[in-house]
Amino acid sequence: MRLAAVDLGATSGRVMEAVVSVGTGADRLDLTEVHRFPNAGVPIGESLYWDVVGLHREVLAGLRTMARSGPVHGIGIDSWAIDYGLLDRDGSLIGNPHSHRDRRTDGVAGQVLEQVSAEEVYAVTGLQQLPFTTIYQLVASRGSAALEAAETMLLLPDLLGYWLTGEIGAERTNASTTGLFDVRSRTWASGLAERVGIPSAILPPLREPGERVGWVTPAVAVGLDLPQDVPVIAVGSHDTASAVVGVPAAQDQTFAYISSGTWSLVGLELERPVLTEAARAADFTNEGGVDGTIRFLRNVMGLWVLSECLRAWHEQGSGADLGTLLAAAADAPALRTVIDINDPSLLRPSTPGDRMPERLVELARRSGEPVPDDRATLVRSILDSLALAYRRTVRTAGQLAGLTVDVVHVVGGGSQNELLCQLTADACGLPVLAGPSEAAALGNVLVQARALHADLPDLAAMRALVRRTHSLRRHEPRSGLDWDAAESRLASTKDGSTP
Ligand code: ADP
Ligand code: LRH
């Protein structure tokens, strides 16, 4: 079968064509990029938005290209989590969806947690405290004309699916990231929503990955030159949920994963949430995965920091390409400058008046670390600091869940960063298996393929197919660098803002 995976990342979106066949003696899971387009927040005044209509246009362009060269048996959409659009009673989008990096949530989490204790919130949602979670975005817009006019809130993949099919709903893995979802009952936490002043009526009916969202509308079918019986299928519409489906883990190993893109999502796949006080204090999240699994993880600031440095240098007219910078970083002194890569000062986009490279220098200075004096040492400091955060997170996840991790799988665009993968292996003291870089698109099509009756009964079968069809790069941990000392240095300089 020939399937379209729409995978939207915060820095780039892509439409991928997958040809899947299983059980025929010649298993196939061929993925081809049909269309890739840049994505970024769009500033208007003090606000930061997504160009969601532009994303829809690019999705259509990719699907049209795919339709021209053969049949399309299914379409699945995943994107980054948390952000949403509001529909009015006519089903029209109200305003433009905000980016989670918008400033309007500043201070909101604190206000909400005065109303409902952090312990109580965690017992219901099981989520890490991220200042921009959907619940906080909606609280920030209480009293706004937009929220007053809203009939329905749609997370971004559900909004794009609605534009293709006319059907309204909320796919569960993504709903679980909103802070408005009960991780145990797996339904909307309507009581919590109402307590904080969010009308629970805007939360649409939930759907499972694998359910059919609907058929493409006649207008979409005509526009794309597709037949009208092409289904849009709900996948793990949270990109991280799809990426974890695409982790090529072997069944006999306990694996940690790093879904490494704009954000790095670092953790374990579990059968049940861990809602202990220790997990809350360590700020671990329990997001819902495909087939009722739990993604027990922490958000690490990720390659965002590096890509914002690249953007800042490019804007200043002295841009260098990523490969050249990584090669220079590989030769730079190791563990010279380590910083808390989760520092909140790194969350916002770089601007000409507040550039990411200078923020990093300032953070190093505040931490009493040697200040990076050129691009190579700055990039090295980002990578060393990411690896240190991965080590801390993998270890803490294992302790909190009572598991001994055998191997770390790195998937997503960042799995192509060989230096970072090697540093991760060194820091964690574990082998790292790197790839595939398009795990989210693979997870997306695997769930579609099962819904269309491919013989992929469970996650193990899906992962086995990825392993059989994709080659991975293995990094063995090396000794020689003192990660313990670096961690102690960091612990002694951290201001306590992140656990
Ligand atoms: P997202 O889906 O969040 O937009 P991706 O999974 O596409 O993110 O990952 C993007 C990141 O992957 C980039 O910021 C970059 O650091 C890294 N990356 C992409 N290609 C390469 C490459 N060839 N070598 C090293 N790193 C890469
Ligand atoms: C990664 C991701 C992550 C969310 C963030 C908003 O792309 O979906 O899992 O926390 O974006």
Question: What does this molecule look like?
Answer:
- The protein is of the alpha+beta class.
- The protein folds into two domains: 2-233, ATPase, nucleotide binding domain (Nucleotidyltransferase, domain 5); 247-435 and 457-499, ATPase, nucleotide binding domain (Nucleotidyltransferase, domain 5).
- The chain contains 19 helices and 22 strands.
- Helix 15 packs across helix 16 (418-428).
- Residues 495-499 have low confidence and may be disordered.
- Bound molecules: adenosine-5'-diphosphate (ADP) and 6-deoxy-beta-L-fructofuranose.
- Residues 9-12, 261-262, 303, 306-307, 322, 412-414, 416-417 line the site of adenosine-5'-diphosphate.
CATH superfamily of the largest domain: ATPase, nucleotide binding domain
Write the CATH fold name of the largest domain. Nucleotidyltransferase, domain 5
Characterize the largest beta sheet: strand count, sense, and whether it forms a barrel: 7 strands, mixed
Low-confidence spans = 495-499
Provide the CATH top-level class of the largest domain. Answer: Alpha Beta
The overall pLDDT average reads 96
User: Count the helices. How many?
Assistant: 19
CA-CA gap between termini: 46 Å
Number of strands: 22
Describe the global form.
Answer: globular
Q: How many domains in all?
A: 2
In this entry the ligands are: adenosine-5'-diphosphate, 6-deoxy-beta-L-fructofuranose
Pairing-aware structural class of the strands and helices?
alpha+beta
Helical percentage: 25-40%
Beta-strand portion reads 15-25%
What is the radius of gyration computed over CA atoms, rounded to a whole number of angstroms? 22 Å
Order the strands across the largest sheet as they lie in space.
18-19-17-16-20-21-22
CATH architecture of the largest domain: 2-Layer Sandwich
Family: Belongs to the FGGY kinase family.
Protein name: Carbohydrate kinase
Keywords: ATP-binding, Carbohydrate metabolism, Kinase, Nucleotide-binding, Rhamnose metabolism, Transferase, Xylose metabolism
GO molecular function, one term: rhamnulokinase activity
